[in-house]
Amino acid sequence: MAGVRFSKVYKRFGDFTALNNLDIAVEDKEFLVLVGPSGCGKTTALRCLAGLEDVTEGDIFIGENRVNDTPPKDRDIAMVFQSYALYPHMTVFDNMAFGLKLRGVKKEEITRRVNEAAAILGIEQLLKRRPRELSGGQRQRVAVGRAIVREPKVFLFDEPLSNLDAKLRVQTRAQISKLHQSLETTFIYVTHDQTEAMTMATRIAVMNKGVLQQLDTPKHLYDFPANLFVAGFIGSPAMNFFDAKIRKVDGGAVVDINGMALKIPQSKVATYLPYDGKSVVFGIRPEDIHNPEFQPQNITAASVEAKVDVLELMGNEIILYLVSGNNNYVARVDPRTKFAIGDKVSVVFNMDNMHIFDPSQNAENPVAVR
Ligand SMILES: Nc1ncnc2c1ncn2[C@@H]1O[C@H](COP(=O)(O)OP(=O)(O)O)[C@@H](O)[C@H]1O
Ligand SMILES: [Mg+2]
């Protein structure tokens, strides 16, 4: 068992920078999820850690050891790929045993480890089948089994659920979480799916364009995104953003969106007053916009007039697409709401959960003001 550390790691392909000063310390036994859009460098980070790519600059540590010059087979890590990469002509047993045979592990030991892994994954009855005789979910488990038998210090997963249908993905997600608990080993898991990240991770590293954006617990990432990118990436439907100005008023301050003034809670006024008169981005999550009829008690509510553009009945909630002036945004309201398309309605923003992002330092990715 071991932690893992990327220290100031750069990976360049020609003049393209795939990893840009990556600094991540993964603790022993942690379940760290690397999440970000396609092409942000997730697979590259795993491949550098596994030794399948050399880093251009910087150091990678597994436990106490700097492994930059350690060949992949000596790094004591096992990787589960998106494609599973099972050998089609081999049985499940042989697929799982293959790596151990190559390493010269004794036959009895191989049998013991394969049977143990098969029991953990509930695939004992499949050991004699070949991959083509398995469902997608079963293949996925064989690929995980092949990693388990190696008894590695660190498990790497690269989008292992992306070939499964939605229902199986949810089940397998829970199984992988359980697996992590029972193996008590460091997991580093890559996905572009923020739901997977939120549900499985002990901590999440959000990446964009090769740059680490924020490394935090799921809850803290959700409640306190460090910048506009993270705020928009984590959460579904995504946080709403409005171009706005902070304006000082008698006894406090407001967020001014094209003349629509939303009162800032007293407790936050001091934080935002330095931005008086400045252009900012105002952010509010869909679940913080309520039908006034069902709004929670004791919130700092700002009333907003809106037109209902689209309405999605989900059963447990209603997703509203609203228009106020030239702003389009999304609300997630109580399922008892009786709005109809085209209605002019009032909704309330829960300003206790408002976010402000400052574009003055980084126009492309404004930083959260706290
Ligand atoms: N061997 C390579 N040669 C050139 N560019 C590469 C190579 N591998 C990856 N890249 C580029 O690096 C970026 C990151 O790729 P990758 O790590 O696979 O992204 P992700 O896994 O986050 O989708 C992409 O733009 C990709 O095209
Ligand atoms: Mg990838």
Report on this structure.
A six-stranded mixed sheet has the order 6-7-8-3-9-10, sandwiched between helices. It has helices at residues 42-50, 92-102, 107-121, 136-148, 166-183, 194-200, 218-223, 228-233, 266-272, and strands at 4-13, 16-26, 31-35, 57-62, 65-66, 77-80, 154-158, 186-191, 203-208, 211-216, 240-249, 252-257, 260-263, 279-284, 289-290, 301-313, 318-324, 327-333, 344-350, 355-358, 367-368. α2 (92-102) crosses α3 (107-121), α2 packs parallel to α4 (136-148) and α3 (107-121) crosses α4. With 370 residues, it is of the alpha+beta class. The protein has nine helices and 21 strands. The structure holds adenosine-5'-diphosphate and magnesium ion (MG). Adenosine-5'-diphosphate (ADP) binds at residues 13, 16, 18, 36, 38-44.
What topology does this entry show?
Layout: E1 4-13, E2 16-26, E3 31-35, H1 42-50, E4 57-62, E5 65-66, E6 77-80, H2 92-102, H3 107-121, H4 136-148, E7 154-158, H5 166-183, E8 186-191, H6 194-200, E9 203-208, E10 211-216, H7 218-223, H8 228-233, E11 240-249, E12 252-257, E13 260-263, H9 266-272, E14 279-284, E15 289-290, E16 301-313, E17 318-324, E18 327-333, E19 344-350, E20 355-358, E21 367-368
Parallel strand pairs: 3-8, 3-9, 6-7, 7-8
Antiparallel strand pairs: 1-2, 1-4, 4-5, 9-10, 11-12, 11-14, 12-13, 14-20, 15-19, 16-17, 16-19, 17-18, 20-21
Helix pairs in contact: 2-3, 2-4, 3-4
The structure holds adenosine-5'-diphosphate and magnesium ion.
